[in-house]
Amino acid sequence: MDFRRLEDADLNNKTALIRVDFNVPRDASGKITDDTRINTALPTIRHLQDAGARVVLLSHFGRPKGEPDTENSLRFMADALAKRLDSEVHFSASLEADALKNLPPSTVVLMENTRFHAGETKSDPALAKKFAALGDIFVMDAFSAAHRDHASSAGIAEFLPAYAGLAMERELDHISQALDHPKPPVMGIVGGAKVSTKIDLLQNLVSKLDTLVIGGGMANTFLFAQGHSVGGSLCEKDLKDTALQMMATAKRENCEIILPVDVVAAEAFAANAPHRVCGLNEVKSDEMILDAGPDTVTKILDAIDASNTLIWNGPLGAFEITPFDTSTVECAKYAGERCKDGKIIAVAGGGDTVSAMKHAGAADDFTFISTAGGAFLEWMEGKTLPGVEILKK
Ligand code: AMP
Asked: What is the reported pTM?
């Protein structure tokens, strides 16, 4: 993908406005329980400091209602960031640009929650202009917020030259390698709970991929549409026609769909619930399908062997409860090994996928794991992301 990178920017003695994503999870005592997003932002901040730029950070946090509230203040983040950056971090709740004038190079200022301003989520140009007045260039480094057309994530680019930060650059290079310009044959694995949340995604993928594995709870809807018994499984029976249409489109587009050929049926949705491997038409009315069976896993591993690129979203079964994590773990481990051997490019992301890959111990072996939820899914859906569009040359 051709987009503006930091290497294209003149940074010396400039004030760089960086859009980061500091929307971190915290426990009831306010302790940050996962600092991945802070760590993701550090390389770009350090890069700009080293280049002699002043750094002004913009982020949303939580879901305030367009006005300040104490619960959603980003003030706590200044200390958390300073510790990790090993550098002083100033905090400012004021959008007065004059307050930032004459700061020495390499100073870091964290601005208060962008969603404290009513115009943020409406991408109000007046607010975007105020944000823009705080800097000389705009650096978009929050892929996880790139699917939103907000004042601080896309609107600012109307007023300032926009560049991708280093985290954004890594994200865009990897995801475009997996779907926009992949090395064929290209395979997808889409699992998760429901078809209804992934209709656009499946539709886009069948027109782009050579092979698509449909797994998890959503496979039940496809199996039901084909006339198989699914017992008490999670199944969206009203989407039967959608599933059939999707399979017809796949056939037209020469995309091979791989559905389970055997399943693990259990008596309850609970860890170690009584279960058995059975064929598609053997699921009893009081059983539910919670995982793909061993023959299905073999088919998926064969498909991975035959592919040069893999893109993965969603688990193949109820991976949070043993032993229904088996197919997800086996396929993820195998894909990870193929990656390590340089045989495949594998990119995964979106929601539960990151924890599924970590659970399988495969996350570090994949070519890239995107931690962006909605943005990764919208990109898989083939949608245009406003926070990416602004970076295109
Ligand atoms: P999603 O957020 O759509 O990717 O869905 C992830 C969720 O799907 C996980 O919490 C899994 O437990 C769930 N899931 C996967 N397979 C099944 C299944 N066969 N039955 C019920 N839930 C499932």
From this structure: 0.93
